[in-house]
Amino acid sequence: MQYEPIKRLLGRFLSGPSFMRKALYWLMDLLLLRTWHVKKALKRINRELNRPANILDAGSGLGQYSYRMCRMNKNWTVNGVDIDSEQVDDCKRFFKKTRLEERTTFKTADLETFKDHDAFDLILSVDVMEHIRGDEKVFNNFSESLKKNGYLLISTPSDKGGSDAHAADDVSFIDEHVRNGYSIEEITGKLSKAGFRSIEAHYTYGKPGNISWRLIMKYPVKMLNVSYIFFVLLPFYYLIVLPVSIVLNFIDLRFTNKTGTGLLVTARK
């Protein structure tokens, strides 16, 4: 299934008045469980990094997390990089409209080659590493780009059914993924090799979260890959499933998952 064209279409559709983009961010914050987990982790980091800081949004996409971090801490400067120049230009336009351009920059870059020595206090990478084959290059670049004691926060699929692949020979639900997911041992080992310490990884999208993901993401994306006419039906669909998904997301966030299809990883330089 193709996910990126749908994201790009949404971005173009909502690239007009800034209130439309803000509404999209609000909706994504509500629907997407990974945002719930990332938001919780960012709040914890914000308490420890509550000072002027330089942030890298590595794979900034539609700019959802860049916007959140700007709003979370007025002392933070956020630098978004993404390989998609169309999305980078779109973010520049939106952040200019919201008068946040003085605290944000966006540029087109490949994370396999991008590095900025000793530049950042925090690097955030959400649902990016599953798209990149040269992950160890990226982890090394992250390590070089972080300041000493800087933070790294990664959200990515796990090998326990991430990308909706449940066996070694399964194909990812999302065609753009180059790997189905990481084991905790694999990603912690690669980060340690790149020079990170205090590495913590825990599962997200346990049983409740996985059901929510199917309702909120998998089934709608499958419908939209058949025809974009289903965009007309989505508001009615979400009116039905949204209350159920919110409860499932809350359960997934509040309780420790023994296993799950997602991973949230934090580390220090």
State the fourth-level CATH superfamily. Answer: Vaccinia Virus protein VP39
- Nearest-integer average pLDDT: 88
Morphology: globular
DSSP, total strands: 7
Poorly predicted ranges (pLDDT <50, ≥5 residues)? none
Largest sheet: 7 strands, mixed
Radius of gyration: 18 Å
CATH architecture assignment name: 3-Layer(aba) Sandwich
Proportion of helical residues: 40-55%
Helix/strand order, N-terminal first = HHHEHEHEEHEHEHHE
The side-by-side strand order for the widest beta sheet comes to 3-2-1-4-5-7-6
Assign the structural class, choosing from mainly alpha, mainly beta, alpha/beta, alpha+beta, or little secondary structure: alpha/beta
Q: Tell me the name of the CATH class.
A: Alpha Beta
What does this protein structure show overall?
It contains nine helices and seven strands, in the order H-H-H-E-H-E-H-E-E-H-E-H-E-H-H-E. The protein has a seven-stranded mixed β-sheet with strand order 3-2-1-4-5-7-6, with helices on both faces. The longest helix has 21 residues, at 234-254. Strand 4, helix 6 (135-145) and strand 5 (146-157) form a beta-alpha-beta unit. The protein is 46% helix and 19% strand. Helix 8 runs antiparallel to helix 9. It is of the alpha/beta class. The mean pLDDT is 88. The radius of gyration is 18 Å and the shape is globular. The protein has one domain: 3-Layer(aba) Sandwich (Rossmann fold), CATH 3.40.50.
